[in-house]
């Protein structure tokens, strides 16, 4: 690929590839079937220093660039999209602390997350606030040295295991995106309840739950960024998050391509491998072309972030294109597998179910189009 990786990036990529093949791939089917959280894998990722890849070493992170992080997510997702999203959200929790946190907050919370002493979560969505993230109704009311938080967050990845959650709540009476503040909620200090555990179509090894805050007292010093600027904190975090989800989608799409190539060469019908049929060749050609484009878009967005340049447009574009690529071609990959692809346990069947969520979380495809058009029509 004409997007040269540095020696360090190549090394991270090949280590992640080996790890994913050896440690992640053998568990993927069970994780999906039984909805098991990849606990052992997360511990091993921590031992390898991969639970805080782009976070500086002074906070216990890997000190690598964001592109390296995207390479790791792609390799994990190729084998198990659940494992990839668990790590992506755990890492997403660190980025707003790094950008908006005080030195004290960084010194306290980042090492906990990078060393995986706690799992991270990001709590923005509510029943009435999905795409319309400014409609958050969870409240945070100042009472002495604490904010008292009340409300219910929905669909929170890592919700049941999270020890540190970046939470968006309303501190002001202003409507919409104004009056929202971000908090770092440490469960051991400010307990909250885990509500409904969602039974999902895909990424079943990542746990998605409600989080219920009932008079949850969070120290004032855990406000992340300025009071009233929580929407900005959330959107900045999501720019990074979208590159991670785009990389996850590229991993899924690459797996679809590899499965399609090997199956179409093996499967004989009408006396020849089905790969000899033009209909199959064209499906595979389109898949290869789109995966290549999606990967380049992810690397472009990550590289702009690494250069300290604006990357909102590129992150949304990469997320939109990569997720639609994963969805479209997972359907084609299943088609190439015929009836065998439709049977539970077939890898392409899992890939198709996993691909769908990449078009929904961290902003639906429609929301990405709103972000893109808002940028180019300015
Ligand atoms: C498995 C999973 C994990 C998740 N993890 C997290 C998490 O860790 N943290 C978190 O905070 N959230 C999380 N979410 C929530 C996720 O980000 C939201 O589901 C997503 O943003 C969409 O919100 P919604 O489901 O309320 O859909 P809605 O906003 O109700 O959208 C419904 C449909 O309407 C469309 N739509 C909405 N508004 C517009 C518009 N203005 N123009 C055009 N079309 C529009 C949408 O694109 C969609 O097609 C997760 C969700 C899932 C399913």
Description of the molecule:
The protein is an alpha+beta fold and about 375 residues long. It folds into 3 domains: about 5-120, Acyl-CoA dehydrogenase/oxidase, N-terminal domain (Butyryl-Coa Dehydrogenase, subunit A, domain 1); about 120-230, Butyryl-CoA Dehydrogenase, subunit A, domain 2; about 230-375, Butyryl-CoA Dehydrogenase, subunit A, domain 3, CATH 1.20.140. Helix content is about 55%, strand content about 15%. The protein has helices spanning about 5-35, 40-45, 65-80, 80-100, 105-115, 230-265, 280-305, 310-335, 340, 345-360, 365-375; strands at about 120-125, 140-145, 145-155, 160-170, 180-185, 195, 210-220, 225, 270, 270-275. A hairpin with a 2-residue loop joins strand 9 (about 270) and strand 10 (about 270-275). It starts with 6 loop residues before the first helix and ends with a helix. It binds flavin-adenine dinucleotide (FAD).
Describe the SSE topology.
Layout: H1 7-34, H2 39-47, H3 66-79, H4 81-100, H5 103-114, E1 119-123, E2 139-143, E3 146-157, E4 162-170, E5 180-186, E6 193-197, E7 208-219, E8 223-224, H6 230-266, E9 268-269, E10 272-273, H7 278-306, H8 312-336, H9 338-341, H10 347-358, H11 365-376
Parallel strand pairs: 1-4
Antiparallel strand pairs: 2-3, 3-7, 4-5, 5-8, 6-7, 9-10
The protein binds flavin-adenine dinucleotide (FAD).
Flavin-adenine dinucleotide binds next to β1, β3 and α11.
